[in-house]
Amino acid sequence: MREQFPFFKAHPNLVYLDTAATSQKPQALLDSLQNYYINDNANVHRGLYKLAYDTTEAYESVRQQVADFLHAQSAEEIIFTHGTTDSLNLVASAFGPHAVPTGGRIVVSGAEHHSNFIPWQQLAKRQQATFVVTPVHSDGTVDVPALLAAITPGTNLVAIAQVTNVAGDTLPVAKIVKKAHDMGAFVVVDGAQAVAHMSVDVQALGADFYAFSGHKIYGPTGIGALYGRADLLAKMPPIQFGGEMISEVRDQGSTWADGPIKYEAGTPHIAGVIGMGAALHWFQENVDAAALQVEHELANQLRTALRAIPDLTVYGNDDSLATVSFNLTGIHPHDVATFLDEQQIAIRAGHHCAQPLMARLGIPATVRASFGIYNNQDDVTKLVEAVQAARRYFHGID
Amino acid sequence: MALTKLDQMYRAVILDEAQHPRHHGVLADFDHEITVRNPSCGDVLHLQISEKDGRVNDVAFSGNGCTISQASASLMTDQILDKTPAEIEQMVETFSDLIIKGDVPDADRLGDAAVLKGVHQFPARIKCATLAWKAAAQVLTEKGKTDD
Ligand SMILES: Cc1ncc(COP(=O)(O)O)c(C=O)c1O
User: Model-level pTM?
Assistant: First the structure.
């Protein structure tokens, strides 16, 4: 698996444990980008020559591919965006005012990434709506019963991660959607940390909207998608205007194209779309349930080994998929990160764009190690040894 | 071997300084007050300064952050005592230069705080080291404006 990632040839001694921030890229993706720019580069949806037609076909075929990947009903439900953040902002701006009336109610979990938090907080302000942030457990996982209880009659919208990015817990999305729908609320799901670690079926989940980023599933940066249920997209106006997205433009008024391209004004990130298609294809060919299970077991091995270290707190639990957050008592995560970096171990330290969660846990930051399909036992061993060494170093123990 | 670079930055004095910071706490009486943040990492620093006859005569900081930011705040608060705002502004400039370049001719004016120069080998940590100093320069020139 690792041989398919040229990054590891460039960095043979690096222990890369920051896939939750962004994944490394397989050769298959790099080949597709190069092939696109060498052989297929043309703008989409406008040229009449064959090359432009073929590129448009390739671009649109990725829409179908993403629809299949998410088990959506049709490609018409897939909008290309810059990534998760862009997707969530699009729903909040374009569909938000339709979903949440003045004085309405929005519920989010206390463990959301800022991308799935601030757009809703700001929408709540605009709509003078109540913005409810639900409790978390002391290990950083979402308190699901409390979240369900917060979805009361009068709730208009619920925004949750399928997999959280600090504790790595998986939320029971189908159950949450059922409760929300019973109360008449829409559900927006942030899939950024889910898609690379589990199979996703938006219809089985019942999600109204589902967002993800290409770069977290071995694809390029700057590209992602938003799934929106067809009947809801029919009610969602475009918020960006320009080329491609129109049906007809007159001096005093315009009408919009049908389907998802009405949300894709301007020349899109064509190479990104093609690359994301190549990455998803590579993923589906190379990463099966067994490989994902290995990844999860590595995370659990790490959790077990870390729990044996004195004065160390591990967040999340053994159901958490591929993300392990922890803190050494009395040692700031940034100091740990610098120490580990000196040993060629790349982990993330900080608030992970989840300040509301940090506030609930009463900590400024955590150290976070996250796994990808290329990690192995050796990575776990090296990290655990280095964490033990960091503890000795900063506590002055020899 | 890898640790020599680390040792240069975290020399015992810095670890010790962070664990036993000077001027940590709050002042009952002060002329300037500011809260600054390092948004990328969540460090928060609250700084209070009292002035007498145009010189800093008391100072305190609180908040949370890594070893580097805490040690730096501790050293900074100690070094600005009895200095005028103009002198402090110059010190802050010298300090920023030192942390970025690793050496500057007028490092002497920083006193003990010059031990932080090892940070220059860790570009990702420069902001941790300069947070407290920039806060001091800002609050003394903007006369006590807080950022939130
Ligand atoms: C849970 C979660 N949501 C949203 C995002 C934002 O993704 P992006 O930066 O690709 O838009 C991330 C990643 O940083 C994430 O982990």
Answer: 0.93
